[in-house]
């Protein structure tokens, strides 16, 4: 180059500018996490619920330097025994009240959604920090009671909307805030998995209890159990709340006595004539899960660990995109959204050429890590009471629309606490 600057150095500088602009928050979070692990005692955890998700929570906490599992609880002995295998040094109980009277400082509520309320209110009363999985509850009255208690607590309350802590989602949110999509036209979300959701048990009573997802009386449905994370991401990226939802659902593959649809679709209406379409089925696993934001300048394809930006041919150049990593995304060329660019720059590498396209930490790990940082250092909660309540309201109302095959208005006051 005529200025005497080496081309490779120039490319590194351009990549560095891009990465530092959009990953400063991540770098600060990593530095804070390291400081927490070194200078603060581990938070003592009690985990209530050792089922499929509870075991995932326990496994994640066992790898988190800022956490120590001291108590676990489940009413079903086989689940409790599985929890003991993951957390062998924790006291094991069959009654959550025993967890609340233990030395645990924080409690993770990983029970079925319809069981959250009593446990959460008792945990707040016992002076515990609480991490409550999403959705907050299986009905709006319970969800509001939980959110109000969490909001009014002197302790930390965080909702299990782990997408809020996902390093990739946080990274991409920086681009969204700059208006890179221009006019958002529509959002499309999908969650597909061929799975009956039915679990076997030794007795009819236990089988009914363990299959709570299959009954309208206790289940928030596919949109409540899986779709809530897509809906919350849409609320976040659109920086708004929906005004109405229309739903449809049916049982097409698992005709086994359930009354909860195994296939559903809903249309969620947002301000400025933007609609989000969410579809989900337990009959097929094709294409798994994603959320797609389509704008007049660019489209964002969001998966749990991967993301691509596909620009329109007539959109203006952003400068840094020339140096970004690219790969095919459907029939287009997608710009890879790399969340861990800062680490590569520190190692003297180029993110566009040598970076992994997946974040280094799982979203659940980041969410629980953020929870411990909020407890010890007062860090901002990622998924607070209001955000958790609003996401739950959208999901439960969407499920109501699915069950009734109707359109339901969502007045603004419905989202207030």
Sequence-ordered SSE layout with sheet pairings:
Layout: H1 7-39, E1 43-48, H2 52-61, E2 67-73, H3 77-86, E3 91-93, H4 96-100, E4 106-109, H5 116-125, E5 129-133, H6 140-152, E6 157-160, H7 167-177, E7 184-192, H8 204-210, H9 221-238, E8 244-250, E9 263-270, E10 274-281, E11 289-295, E12 298-302, E13 307-311, E14 326-329, E15 332-336, H10 341-346, H11 351-354, H12 363-377, H13 385-404, E16 407-409
Parallel strand pairs: 1-2, 1-4, 2-3, 4-5, 5-6, 7-10
Antiparallel strand pairs: 7-11, 8-9, 8-16, 9-10, 11-12, 12-13, 13-15, 14-15
Helix pairs in contact: 1-7, 5-6, 6-13, 9-13
Characterize the structure shown.
The chain has 417 residues and is of the alpha/beta class. It has two domains: 27-164, NAD(P)-binding Rossmann-like Domain (Rossmann fold), CATH 3.40.50; 167-361 and 389-415, Dihydrodipicolinate Reductase, domain 2, CATH 3.30.360.10. 39% of the residues lie in helices and 22% in strands. The chain has helices at 7-39, 52-61, 77-86, 96-100, 116-125, 140-152, 167-177, 204-210, 221-238, 341-346, 351-354, 363-377, 385-404; strands at residues 43-48, 67-73, 91-93, 106-109, 129-133, 157-160, 184-192, 244-250, 263-270, 274-281, 289-295, 298-302, 307-311, 326-329, 332-336, 407-409. The strands form two sheets. It has a ten-stranded mixed sheet with strand order 14-15-13-12-11-7-10-9-8-16, with helices on one face. Strands 3-2-1-4-5-6 form a six-stranded parallel sheet, with helices on both faces. A hairpin with a 4-residue loop joins strand 12 (298-302) and strand 13 (307-311). Helix 1 (7-39) crosses helix 7, helix 6 packs antiparallel against helix 13 and helix 9 crosses helix 13 (385-404). The model is unreliable at 1-38 (pLDDT under 50).
